[in-house]
Amino acid sequence: MTEEKKNYELIPENYEEEMLKRRKASKIKGRDTKSEDVNMNSLMDILTIMLVFLLKSYATDPINITPSSDLELVRSTSLLQPAATVTVTVSKSAIVVDNKPVLVVKDGKVEASQKRGGEDGFFIIPLNRELVNAAESKRRLASVNPSVTFDGVCTIVMDGDTPYRLLTEIMYTAGQAEFNNFKFATISQES
Description:
alpha/beta
């Protein structure tokens, strides 16, 4: 029996309290030492990867054109680079101003109820409203940012099969909204 007593230790009554104190003390010590040994390499690696990803995904062209069956651009040998302007996109099925749909186009025509003067009119009411809003937005931006100016330039991105009448209506309506200078977006073709 004496051998059995030698193998066992007596546990004091406040054993649990002492163990809790030891655990708390080791946790506090662990926090202090970990905060001194912060490794910044992993964080810098993550930030570098994110920066590269964002730079690659950011488009540098001021005009982004999404190819579709509704919009086939004309080819040109022009060497001019696109500028950041208000963009009017005319596809076979819609007119869009700065990526915001404005109205529907059917068979190369705008519905007569959407034009002032009916079928023979040149003034497209919803397009004018959106272009006036875009012009006001550019003027407000120019009032707070001196590097931005409202110069009345509008870029027209249109399908190669767009009827001349529809193009004339769009240009007339844009002129009424104080967009008097036009640029046309084309696909560059090597000469």
